[in-house]
Amino acid sequence: MAKRRIVIITAGLGVPSSSRMLADQLGAAARDVLTEAGIDAAVTTHELREYAVDIANTMVAGYAPPNLEALLNEVIDADALIAVTPVFTASVSGLFKSFFDVIDKDSLDGKPVLIGATGGSARHSMVLDFAMRPLFGYLRARLVPTAVYAAPEDWGAGASGAAGLDRRVRQAGAELAGLLRGGTGLQQETAPAAPGRTAVHGSMESLPFEELLAQTQRR
Fold first, then answer.
1. Do 75 and 107 meet the contact criterion of CB atoms below 8 Å apart?
2. Domain limits for position 54
């Protein structure tokens, strides 16, 4: 049986945190799809709050302590990455950004990455487009089309947005699994949104520039 390694990085600060909860759901969704395809998926989760001091020291000293170096190498060697951050001051958390500041800028080149974020209001969902996509675009990662944002109303049985969150999680997980299978990662579980946009928590999220350009050229 083929095997794939997925590493999850989450920057939540609480125990438990909504970022960790979202990360776990995304990892499980990708693993389930891979398992159905006969691919063994090993999913490992790391919470950056446990590495906060090492990350700060690395930014000052220029080299990583053994524990952080091991994590960096695990991320580099993984077949895919899931990265989830809480929203602080309308952007990714400083801890999240600092981790990707200390990783080698070429280490994620071409790696499939699924991004997610959590926040106190659905209005912060644009952090996916304005902060996270540019960050991983700079690192030349291969982002899956669907990014997932979860607001407070998305959590809990009977929550108003719970069904929508579950649908987005399954869609994103299927896309990541598709990339790991060598496919397009574009399986659709729901009706497609309007051209050039995908739905995220009832708002609209821009597709990657390459897809928008391709659509323009076809018209």
1. yes
2. 2-218
Token pair belonging to 69? 């170096």
Tokens (6 digits) for 185: 């990662």
Q: Which residues contact 52 (CB under 8 A, 6 or more apart)?
A: 95
Q: Domain holding 186: CATH number?
A: 3.40.50.360
Number of domains, the chain: 1
pTM, 2 dp:
0.82
Give CA–CA dist 185/176, Å, rounded.
Answer: 6
Amino acid residing at 150: A
Give the type of residue at 119. G
User: What span, in angstroms and rounded, lies between the C-alpha atoms of 84 and 60?
Assistant: 25
Q: Measuring CA to CA, which residue among 24, 39, 60, 1 is closest to residue 178? A: 39
Amino acid found at 159: A
List Cα–Cα distances, 138 to 25, 110, 142, 151, in angstroms. 26, 11, 11, 27
In order along its 219 residues, the chain shows pLDDT tens digits of 578 999 999 999 988 899 999 999 999 999 999 999 999 999 999 999 999 999 999 999 999 999 999 999 999 999 999 999 999 998 999 999 999 999 999 999 999 999 999 999 888 999 999 999 999 999 999 999 999 999 998 887 665 667 889 999 999 999 999 999 874 444 444 333 333 333 344 333 444 545 544 444 444
